[in-house]
Amino acid sequence: MGHQSTKNLPITKVNADESNITFDILAIEEPLEIRVEYGPENHRQVRNVSVTMRTPGNDAELAAGFLFTEGIIKDLKDIVSVHHCFIACAENKENIIQVSLNESTTPNLQNTERNFYTTSSCGVCGKGSINAIRTVSAFSEQLDNNAVNADVLYQLPDILRQHQKVFEDTGGLHASALFNNTGELLIVREDVGRHNALDKLIGASINERLLPLTRNILMLSGRASFELVQKAAMAGINIIAAVGAPSTLAVELAAEFNITLVGFLRGQRFNIYTAAHRILIPDYETTH
Amino acid sequence: MGHQSTKNLPITKVNADESNITFDILAIEEPLEIRVEYGPENHRQVRNVSVTMRTPGNDAELAAGFLFTEGIIKDLKDIVSVHHCFIACAENKENIIQVSLNESTTPNLQNTERNFYTTSSCGVCGKGSINAIRTVSAFSEQLDNNAVNADVLYQLPDILRQHQKVFEDTGGLHASALFNNTGELLIVREDVGRHNALDKLIGASINERLLPLTRNILMLSGRASFELVQKAAMAGINIIAAVGAPSTLAVELAAEFNITLVGFLRGQRFNIYTAAHRILIPDYETTH
């Protein structure tokens, strides 16, 4: 198949004692468009049924499993073949997969509209997704008059944890938190869906007339996906710190938008993936 | 607002020494339909723009944040009011929220189709979501000829971790694993999206002609959401074990489908949320 599930990217690794530039392995996140081909021989049709952000690999299984678990097909014997479409732009050749059904099968496409990502641009390569966002963002130029001390970052996870009320009770919620750049907590929101927690936080920021959030830090309780960086970019956020790992597409979007992306913020250490200039790190050379 | 973010449910708590019935606090997961009302006074229109599975609370912020971060509105001053619609079935009265825009604003609805969950049934209360699934599941009656020893369950997280190759490298992936009921690992799949990992796993099971998966255990590396239980039900799975917490709607769906749902499976302990009869627990009374 030739696909890759991970990618090596240069990062700045920071801990209480030192900081150095190294490489880190990231999970690849790319869109996959699933198409279904069906109908009698003289009238074959192709329909897009889903675009999902996925890690490349086992795409044929993903497509077959999706059609089955969403109730689009009832019997796997209906599938004649599953193959990638090597069309459209050069970059997305493994991001479209087509499932061909036999002539007598009518797929149940009633519920599929919810999954179809309609976008005027390419949309199924990372570049297309990023360009689509650039056109709608109100704050597409992220300002450089923001900065945060490494010492401030170290404290954020503990502060967030203390204010995650529902997580404390259930162990089952994602959180987004907004800090100012001296580490003062402004807003926390929680949800079973990480995108919802961030939408709530940005909605609250809107109510308090805080936008654009150019002098703030967005803290995420989990991983940093493409979708979360996209929403942050829309609100003018230029420093994102996540407890978990970022995906490749999250890093690419952050780089394009000049957003500082920090991951694995735990204890006295973190990784900087993009725009490291906004993180003020003690000069170990002179203090040691 | 009168909303609740958590719910107390009876569970069976099991560890190496004892098992007892107690209560546990779960994060509520319910659908929220976001509607936008716009247009001139003599021609107001209402459009559904999204249904998202969310934790109730801060729904107005969620709706405003969603419209803004998705680029549907560009300026928050365009919002005249945000309010819940107390219509439709009695159970969903807090699950529809409407954002009214001023007369001069035209929302950008071009990209919203991807978010619109079209379903013939109610769809915005838990019951509607569960009924929608019942109608399409090929294996809606989960069989009772499956069982697993507690000792077998204790071993599954370690076995899964040893086989999560990409997670090991990146710290950034969800995994789904299929075991037989004596604890033998059959299939593992990983992805940045937990629903994709499960679709890949079910797609692989299809390829190997293993469906329905009535003598197996599905192991999830993270939390158990409604969507994951739904996909499992479609494949005939009747025992699900998650490292993380389940949501309320995941538990309700598992109960309706007679699926055994285990959460917080870590070390020598776990919680059973539904259909506890399939977990064989040593009789502590006689052995102590």
Layout of helices and strands:
The structure is a homodimer of 288-residue chains.
Chain A (H helix, E strand, L loop, with lengths): L5 E10 L3 E9 L2 E9 L6 E10 L4 H11 L9 E6 L11 E6 L24 H11 L11 E2 H14 L1 H6 L3 E7 L4 E7 L2 H14 L8 E5 L5 H9 L4 E4 L5 H9 L3 E7 L2 E6 L4 E2 L3 H4 L1
Parallel strand pairs in A: 3-6, 7-14, 10-11, 11-12
Antiparallel strand pairs in A: 1-2, 1-13, 3-4, 5-6, 8-9, 8-10, 12-13
Helix pairs in contact in A: 5-6, 6-7
Features:
288 residues, homodimer, 14 strands, Ubiquitin-like (UB roll), Cytidine Deaminase, domain 2, 27% helix, alpha/beta, eight-stranded mixed beta sheet
Element pattern of chain A in H and E:
EEEEHEEHEHHEEHEHEHEEEH
Coarse morphology of chain A: elongated
Strand order of the largest sheet of chain A: 2-1-13-12-11-10-8-9
Provide the domain count of chain A: 2
Low-confidence stretches of chain A: 113-123
Give me the CATH fold name of the largest domain in chain A: Cytidine Deaminase, domain 2
Query: Greatest chain-chain interface?
Result: A-B, 73 and 73 residues
Largest sheet of chain A: 8 strands, mixed
Rg from alpha-carbon coordinates of chain A: 21 Å
The CATH architecture of the largest domain in chain A can be named as 3-Layer(aba) Sandwich
Multimeric organization: homodimer
Structural class of chain A: alpha/beta
Q: Between the first and last Cα atoms of chain A, what is the distance in angstroms?
A: 50 Å
Question: What is the β-strand count of chain A?
Answer: 14
CATH homologous superfamily (4th level) name of the largest domain in chain A = Cytidine Deaminase, domain 2
Strand content of chain A: 25-35%
Helix content of chain A: 25-40%
Number of helices, counting only DSSP H or I runs of 4 residues or more of chain A: 8
Mean pLDDT across residues of chain A: 84
Assign the CATH class of the largest domain in chain A.
Alpha Beta
